[in-house]
Amino acid sequence: MAITETADRAALLEDLRATREALRAAIAGLTDLQGKFKPAPDAWSIEDCVEHLALVENGLLLRLTQEATPSEHIERLERQAAVRKMGVDRSSKRQAPERARPNGRFGSLQKALDQFVANREKTIAYLRDCPDDLHARTITHPILATMTAHEFVIFMTGHTLRHVDQIREIQQMPGFPA
Question: Which pTM does this prediction carry?
Answer without folding.
Answer: 0.91
